[in-house]
Amino acid sequence: MIREGISDNGNWVQYQLVYDSGNDTLFVRNLKGKKVLAAAKGYDGQFFNDNSFVYMLPDKKLGISNLMNAKEKKIEGVGNYQIAGNGGFLLLTSNEEGGTTTIKVLDSDCMVIETIKSVSSFMISPDRNSLVYCHTDGGNKKVTLLAFLDHKVQKKTIASGNYDYSNPVWQPNNNAVAFLGQPTIKTSSSGPEVFFYKVHGQKSYSFSITQNSLLKGFDFNGNRSSSLIVSDDGMRVFFALKDQEESSNKESTSDVEVWNASDSNLYPHVKRSGRQGVNKMGVWEPLSGRILIAGKEKQDIYMLNGDQHYAFTRDVFPYLPSDKERPEADYYITNLLTGEVSLFLRQVPFENAALVFSPNGKSVAYFRENQWKVYNFADKTHITITPAVLSFAYEADYSAPRSPYGFAGWTADGNRLMLYDQFDLWSFSLDGKGGKRLSSGREEGIIFRVADIGNASSIDESWLVETGKEIDSASAIILEVQSENNDKSGYAVLSPNGKLNIKTFTDKKLSRLKKAKNKDIAIYRQEDFDLPPQIVVAYDNKWKDDVVFKSNPQDSQYPWGHSELISYRNNAGESLQGVLFYPFDYQPEKKYPMVVRIYEKQGASLHTYIAPSLYNTTGYNTSNLTSQGYFVLHPDINYTIGNPGVSAADCVIAATNAVISKGCIDPGRIGLIGQSFGGYETFFITSQTKLFAAAIAGAGISDMGSFYLSMGWNYMTPDAWRFEHQQFRMGKTLFEDAEGYRRNSAITFARDFSTPILSWTGDSDMQVNPEQSMTFYMAMRRLKKNHVMLRYPKEGHVILDRVRQADLSSKIMGWFNHYLKDCPKPDWSSPD
User: Fold this and answer.
1) What is the greatest pairwise CA distance in the chain?
2) pTM of the full predicted structure?
């Protein structure tokens, strides 16, 4: 496995080889001179100053390599690092006793020029040219600004007093900072204060949250990921609030939980989030002193628009209790300049809840009634911009509202937006008067998507301020290209004049494109099932297979198998495809055992390289099996609403028979394996056919009725939504179609099982209750069937402990080897 990146000047590429042992190695390679530097166990590498490379090492060490002369420097006691000052400075952080931090500032020669101790919190500016930090200096609490100048730094104290300062945040254009101050001397009326400091005007403002009458009944919510935000224009500071908890009539000294079937939310949700569960947002204008709260009553803060002049809130309470994954909601807009609150959209499904804000703040796009629409803030108009004759929504086989194929981005001028249909990239004007298709994938069965070519790390946007990607249509746009059946992939360039030029399109998997910031050079990963990942470089738009690094050279010593697409039809006559992986050293005259791995659609695995390994979260590894002489099949499945198990059995049996007809498989030596929903399918399919000589079901459900009525602890909601609106595809309640739930449950057909089944589960699985595996085990035990259940302690829906991962992988191979290859029965599977 490799991870890769490219320097801003395009001269150097970094890649990390990741091993099962954890003894990873970080490499830096010169693209011209082929010079290579290596850092054993190195990770988190970044190019520094064009001439250096910085990386972390175990035991809190930092490595710095000079790329010109290969000299290396090691610094002890470093917890983390950041690059600052236009790439001319390094900030090294280390933890002190008592929970504070020490920051060391290094110049471009890697010399320490400043040491800052007793730092409680800090944040680098978006342009990385300044640092704000809260610290203790000689017993005094302070907030200090550090500016990075040419080869030196400049400090200025911006706050000092009897406060515990914390949570500093920057204005996006670096002109102001906000932070909190908690009085060190507590009184009945004391509480957190919000401070605001204008860097260029060198002026400070503050206000007390607890002493403002408008905020009576609210507490500051410091647990939010962004409890403070400064607007782009520096005119407002946003701060998170929560309702003060009111005593409930249900609260008493008793520890008895009261679950009322008429409650809006389930008891665990109320216990975790409070009876209201509402998060509010306060708005402070430092210059005028004005305060307001976004939204009204039970409206929960959702998002700010692009220029933060409007706040979107949502109210789910009219739609509680809900039978869906997340309840529908009414959405409201608060004009932060006037305080006016108005309805935006009513009864929005959770699946269509995403709002895509324009970076310029003028518009917001959303998906409703299977079409894209745009709301203009200035004139308060909703305009449908995609014509009804075109489909921009998935043809989903769930009964939930359809979701869009995706939003590519806004043009830089803010006048158009780019959208995806099933195949192509489109451009639409915001006035709804015209759209233009920018690619021609539908005719050729090719999917075009805008490539993510970002390479440099950046400061993440707040969860509360998130805008759609801005696309410069005046420059060339690099697109990812993928065939509909996954047999080819590549990259194309869309010129400003509209000409589309496919640069590379091959029967391999191309991915992870990264472009140099200051040069027209890019790298990408190329791989296939029988080709370990390679790093390929593209120079000046001349895309060719110029390989600069090949991973896993030892693979060439083995007769690796290959992969191919197969086609088949289910009983409804629908055309489907699957991926068939051939065993190592395949010999056409032989008959081989086969393992069928199931989980919905799996065509994307056709060209994916998989290194054999015992360390994976579900115990399944395709190359483990092919290296041991197995064919492996990944069939696609089409589902019928109301018959998920029956339709899965139909498709999987059809796919298996299609491979048997090729004459390379021993029909008496075929196994079936699946995990999660695939585990459910494995339980059910083996109840319907004797085609499989052995099966393995991981974290699956065996009884739809009891799972429908179970508690989903991951989401603190009933699991019924999975059946009515999501993956289990029943489309009706248990009480409307009890026979359908029974018909699609493996436990219904427990007497008919003859396939030896190994099941496994984590005893702390919050996604699928482990009692579903236990139910199946109890049925098999009572009926004296051949079944073994593995129950892993302290594991969830997948196995995370590496020792247990290896154990599960070994047991899976042992189970299949015994039943499909006549190997001795593993001791662990024999009864006491």
Assistant:
1) 87
2) 0.92
